[in-house]
Amino acid sequence: MVTTTNISAIEELASGAGADVAIVDETPSECLLSRLENLRDGSAKIPVIMLYVYNARYVALDRAFRSHVASVYYKPVEVSLLSKRIDELLAA
Prior knowledge:
The protein has helices at residues 8-14, 30-41, 59-66, 79-91; strands at 2-4, 22-25, 48-53, 71-75. The chain is α/β, with parallel strands linked by helices. The mean pLDDT is 84.
């Protein structure tokens, strides 16, 4: 599992750097969406969990992100739910 707040690390994952799950803690943006598209379409096929503080101005981006990530959680995150989702993704 890789946890990052550095969106450039996503490109390393897309190239097959080796991770079973990526947790991205980053404010939604078009740049991040593009990088997640590359990750989804890359050879690695790593499931991504997205974390961010909800803001109504991100509604459209939130919809777009949901088609590229395994899960989206708003902060503060309930750790037990996040842990359960990680277990589900690792078991798949």
